[in-house]
Design a protein that fits this description.
Helix content: 25-40%
Largest sheet: 12 strands, parallel
Number of helices: 15
Shape: globular
CATH topology of the largest domain: Jelly Rolls
CATH class of the largest domain: Mainly Beta
InterPro entries: F-box-like_dom_sf, F-box_dom, FBXL15_LRR, Leu-rich_rpt_Cys-con_subtyp, LRR_dom_sf
Radius of gyration: 27 Å
GO biological process, one term: SCF-dependent proteasomal ubiquitin-dependent protein catabolic process
Protein name: FBXL4 protein
Strand order of the largest sheet: 10-11-12-13-14-15-16-17-18-19-20-21
CATH architecture of the largest domain: Sandwich
Number of domains: 3
Keywords: Leucine-rich repeat, Ubl conjugation pathway
Organism: Ptilorrhoa leucosticta
């Protein structure tokens, strides 16, 4: 028989199974749609497209703005556009906390997890609720400044306004692509071609990656188009996507079918080979090294092939570093229970973004840590809204070797729960950005965790006296290398003096949007003289920064790499030239909205110092 015919047989069977799958999902989708329409008193004709803006912002990972205002916050994504079609830097838009690769080049940068699939590149997210559940036909994203950050759009089967929580929460990717560089910062309406799904949704999630951007991306609004009744798929126009095959229902049948077809191609060769394909002849360590390049789902699939590879794929040495963040939508209590026996030696664990909407329970998380927490050194739990005081207590009891703890944007943890962190005296990194940590708990942590090297307290609005906190840092945290006090509202020159005197190893300091600091008190001059190792200094939106401060930095902080003085009116081109001549390693200088630094000056400085990225933002 010609070799063409077996290949045609493979393609025919694959095409048949895809059509069969579409037929099943269409039937289920039509039933769900009918129920939705029958229960909705405002049901519309099936041919009417509903156009709606986001009603509410439900969740997000970070934002540039303050917790107590609307400027530059994710909450600006709710409702009709505030800025579009205008372009520029506007406070009425939604802005994430970071952009570019600058945050990966500073002392506080964390090492990446291995085995992160190449298809997952998301850095931040925002979830939006809409009034009416619909089958999406289009999603319009109104980007007003430095577009191109959105890399994934997802839809959720759960209705955030339903009184009855669903038994199962399902997420479906509507569109996904790698980050792209967009020419120019001008506004645009981004309308990617989305995939049709088989359930109605009024919960949309945007995931972004800003690493290729020259400045903060700004989003103004999101428009969801959809219909109440599921559209009928056209076989002439719809493309068959591998993602349409439900893994739970078809993976086993599809695998068996492929095995049968493969035997037709190489049945003679298979008889001549040993069952393990000579893998059992290789050294154990070499097989482990080969498998270390596989993602977690690939390891789980490979474990089903033979006993030898099952043994290797289940070896706890393959799970020393484990990031489950790329699979956040599928991780639940069952997943953690399944992984327990494999993670007894785990040292790095990333559960960021996982477990929300009941996917992970407190008991499920606690059971996992009781089995797998003894060797943990690094634990990432960013945006883990299932976390409560019991979880923090379990962490401190079951993870005696813990050195890094990330609780960024875990805003559901009650204030009193943070007291438990003080029991982990080995901590070297603690990220509490956008949490409800209070002053008493933080003082206790600083007192008992004297090994701290990296501390993030950005947007922690429940701390009453930052001068007292800074004084405790200066007295107890002598090894501190990076400190984030972004949007700290009440630190003064007194706290800065205590901090600079006691923490002289500081290499990174973020004092952005700290309005109570005034250059006239000498606080910035004191910083420059006491902290010669500074590599990153953010004085964002401090209007009082002046030439004297810049000249002190030029004279004392010659290792400076990143400086943000956005918004100052007191800095001249002359002092900036001195800084650029002195600080040879400087790579980022943000002079946006600096009234004395116009575009002509920026062009001149760029020409004379081509290795420095000098940012000048604009509004029009």
């Amino acid at each position: 028989m010609s070799p063409v015919f077996p290949m045609l047989t493979v393609l025919s069977m694959f095409y048949y199974m895809c059509l069969r799958r579409r037929a099943r999902t269409a039937t289920r989708g039509e039933m769900n749609s009918r129920r939705a329409i029958e229960s909705n008193t405002r049901a519309l004709p099936i041919n009417v497209e509903i156009v709606q803006y986001a009603k509410e912002v439900l969740d997000f990972s970070s934002h540039y703005g303050s917790e107590n205002s609307m400027s530059y916050t994710m909450w600006n994504l709710a409702g009709i556009p505030n800025v579009y079609p205008s372009s520029g830097d506007f406070t009425q838009t939604a802005v994430f906390r970071t952009y570019g690769t600058w945050w990966d080049r500073c002392p506080s940068a964390r090492l990446p997890f291995k085995r992160t699939p190449s298809t997952f590149c998301s850095q931040d997210y925002v979830e939006l609720a809409f009034e009416e559940p619909v089958y999406p036909t289009a999603v319009h994203i109104l980007e007003t400044y430095h577009p191109g950050a959105v890399v994934r759009i997802l839809a959720c089967s759960a209705n955030p306004y339903s009184q009855n929580p669903p038994a199962e929460v399902r997420w479906e990717i509507l569109w996904s692509e790698a980050p792209m560089k967009v020419n120019g910062p001008q506004a645009r309406q981004f309308t990617p071609c989305i995939k049709q799904i088989n359930f109605p949704t009024n919960l949309i999630r945007l995931e972004v990656n800003s690493s290729l951007l020259d400045y903060y991306t700004e989003l103004d609004a999101v428009v969801l188009h959809g219909v109440k009744e599921r559209p009928v798929l056209s076989l002439k126009t719809s493309m068959i996507d591998m993602n349409d095959i439900d893994e739970d229902e078809d993976e086993e049948k599809f695998g068996c079918g492929m095995d049968t077809l493969n035997k037709q191609f190489s049945i003679v060769t298979l008889r001549e080979w040993p069952t393990n394909g000579y893998f059992d002849k290789l050294p154990y360590e070499l097989i482990q090294l080969i498998l270390s390049h596989l993602t977690v789902p690939d390891l789980c699939r490979l474990a089903q092939t033979c006993k030898l590879l099952y043994q290797h794929c289940c070896d706890p040495l393959q799970y020393i570093h484990l990031s489950l963040q790329p699979y956040w939508a599928r991780i639940n209590d069952t997943s953690l229970e399944y992984l327990q026996s494999r993670c007894t030696l785990i040292q790095w664990l990333n559960l960021s973004w996982t477990g929300n909407r009941g996917a992970i329970s407190v008991s499920g998380f606690s059971r996992f840590l009781k089995v797998c927490g003894s060797e943990l050194v690094r634990l990432e739990l960013s945006c883990g809204h299932f976390l409560n005081e019991t979880c923090l207590e379990v962490i401190t009891e079951m993870c005696p070797n813990l050195q890094e703890l990330n609780l960024s944007s875990c805003d559901k943890i009650p204030p009193q729960a943070f007291n438990h962190i003080a029991k982990v005296g080995s901590l070297k990194r603690l990220i509490l950005y956008r949490t409800k940590v209070e002053q008493t708990a933080l003082l206790s942590i600083l007192n008992f965790c004297s090994e701290l090297q990296h501390l993030s307290l950005g947007s922690c609005v429940m701390i009453e006296d930052y001068d007292l906190i800074a004084s405790m840092m200066g007295a107890k945290c002598k090894k501190l290398r990076s400190l984030d006090l972004w949007r700290c509202k009440n630190i003064t020159e007194s706290g800065i003096a205590e901090l600079a005197s006691g923490c002289q190893l500081l290499e990174e300091l973020d004092l952005g949007w700290c309005p109570t600091l005034q250059s006239s008190t000498g606080c910035f001059t004191n910083l420059a003289r006491k902290l010669p190792n500074l590599q990153k200094l953010f004085l964002t939106a401090n209007r009082s920064v002046c030439d004297t401060d810049i000249e002190e930095l030029a004279a004392n902080c010659t290792h400076l790499r990143q400086l943000d003085i956005l918004g100052t009116r007191m800095v001249s081109p002359t002092s900036l030239r001195k800084l650029l001549e002195s600080c040879k390693d400087l790579s980022l200088l943000d002079v946006s909205f600096c009234s004395q630094i116009d575009n002509r000056v920026v062009l001149e400085l760029n020409a004379n110092f081509p290795n420095v990225f000098i940012k000048k933002s604009f509004t029009q």
